[in-house]
Amino acid sequence: MQQGVLEVIAGPMFAGKTSMLLKKARAFDAGMVLIKPSFDTRYGICEIKTHDGLAARAFNLSNTKEVLELDAIRKAKAVFFDEIQFFTDPYFSGDIIDCVRILLNRGQSVYCCGLDMNWKGECFKITSELQKIANRYVLLQAKCSICNQAAPYTYKSNGSDAKIELGAADIYEPRCPRHFPFCNDYTPENIQKDACYHQGELFEL
Hints:
With 205 residues, the chain is an alpha/beta fold. Helix content is 21%, strand content 27%. The strands form five sheets. The protein has a six-stranded parallel beta sheet with strand order 5-2-6-7-1-8, sandwiched between helices. It has a two-stranded antiparallel sheet with strand order 3-4. The longest helix is centred in the first third of the chain and has 10 residues, at 17-26. It is elongated and about 55 Å long.
């Protein structure tokens, strides 16, 4: 049996990762299944939804046994995982990396999207491990909320100090290296003196 193909789509929040995942899923029509972690309930229990409104039905699963034994998943040509970084304890039971390998060995293709780093710039282990075995790794960037330049980071502007906290634009925003507090070249003055990003336009100060 020919082994399946693994593609990983990674990057910060607001980079279009889930939108790209859903577009790829549509190409498989009825031959695919979408899976989301039970931890992510921002847009409903059994629905994947992008920040710009695209939506699709998905299995809400909490362990590898469900992924590997559900009949609908076993019959699928391709399996799509959204927010792959959340498929870990305490939100998900079992080794998702081994689970992906089993799916690939069955001949099923696997597509995953997720954050490559948390809001402190620390790598998510699952995304990093999947990158090592991926046939294709796509790294997307957003636009910095301060200067509109390429933004590889997600900055937490509100919320708690927890490393993982559910939220969207109410808590998080994309940042470039110059405006990300955990980068070496960051200084608070950068935000005031570089640019003012307001209502979708860039105004130099």
